[in-house]
Each structure stands twice: as structure tokens, then as C-alpha cells.
Design goal:
With 148 residues, the protein is α/β, with parallel strands linked by helices. The protein has one domain (2-119, 127-147): Rossmann fold (3-Layer(aba) Sandwich), CATH 3.40.50. It has helices spanning 13-23, 54-62, 74-82, 100-116, 129-147, and strands at residues 2-6, 26-31, 43-47, 68-70, 86-88, 94-95. Helix 1 runs parallel beside helix 5 (129-147), helix 2 runs parallel beside helix 3 and helix 3 (74-82) packs antiparallel against helix 4. It is globular, with a radius of gyration of 15 Å.
Length: 148
């Protein structure tokens, strides 16, 4: 069992590392660069080549049943859920076989709406302290469940 973190722009890397350390879980921080490698013996920082979705492809090729994946990338989440991995978003929401279809459809719909109206302003809400707290509790639950 491993923890895979889509580390580019991930706001909860430290929470992942702390939880993985408490549970003794092998962790992969996967990114295109720009983060400092961890010195923790259970953490491997994987630098993938520049390019679209290189980190996502690396994770999708490896994550499977018993693993936990942290990502905001919905297509990556869908691949990991299909492979049997538990998937968490940085706000603590779980992406599962029961909800990934709706989440993926909503993502596609919003992309279509944005492309139809190039002047549309706005975006998601800001990442909050409450999101960070929900994530910390969710990652502990997910890692505990994966190791049992």
C-alpha cells in the first residue's frame, strides 16, 4: 500500500507527509519540479518530465487497490478509482465509484460553459483552514482503512 500525492500545486503536502509518517506508509510526491525533496526515508519525490499530465500518467500507471491518491485532477481520480484506489481531494472529499461519474460530468459541463463564454469570471472558492482540517481527518481515516 502506498500514498500517491499529485504534488504540483497541492496545498496539503505537509498533512500528507505527517499522516503517512504516523502510519508508516510509503509515499510518492509526484511533480514536474519546484518542490524540495523530502529527507524522510518513506518518502520519494518523483520528478516527471515537463508536459501535460506527466505526473497524472505516472500515478495512474501505479496506483491500484489498497493505495490512497491525493489529487484535484478529476480524470486522474477517475482512473485511480477504476483501479481500486481510494482518492481524496485536498478539501477532504472522497472520490469513489459511487460519485466519480457525476463529478467527471460536472467538470466537463463546467469546461463547456467556460469555453462558451470566454468573459466568464470567477472560479472555485478559496482553500480554507476548515478544508485543511477536513483533509487531515480524511487522510488519517483513509490510511487507517488501507492498512487494516
Amino acid at each position: 500500500m502506498s500514498l500517491y500525492v499529485d504534488a504540483d500545486a497541492c496545498p496539503v503536502k505537509e498533512e500528507c507527509l505527517r499522516a503517512a509518517g504516523r502510519h508508516g506508509i510509503r509515499t510518492y510526491l509526484v511533480c514536474n519540479g519546484g518542490i524540495r525533496p523530502s529527507t524522510h526515508p518513506l518518502v520519494e519525490t518523483v520528478f516527471v518530465p515537463e508536459g501535460p499530465d506527466a505526473a497524472d500518467m505516472w500515478i495512474a500507471e501505479r496506483a491500484g487497490a489498497g493505495d490512497v491518491v491525493v489529487t484535484t485532477d478529476i480524470p486522474l481520480a477517475a482512473k485511480c478509482v477504476a483501479a481500486g484506489a481510494q482518492v481524496l481531494k485536498p478539501d477532504g472529499d472522497a472520490l469513489t465509484a459511487a460519485n466519480i461519474g457525476n463529478v467527471l460530468a460536472t467538470r466537463d459541463l463546467m469546461a463547456d460553459l467556460r469555453s462558451a463564454d470566454p468573459f466568464r469570471q470567477g472560479g472555485g472558492r478559496a482553500f480554507s483552514r476548515a478544508d485543511r482540517g477536513r483533509f487531515a481527518a480524511a487522510i488519517d481515516r483513509a490510511l487507517r482503512a488501507a492498512t487494516q
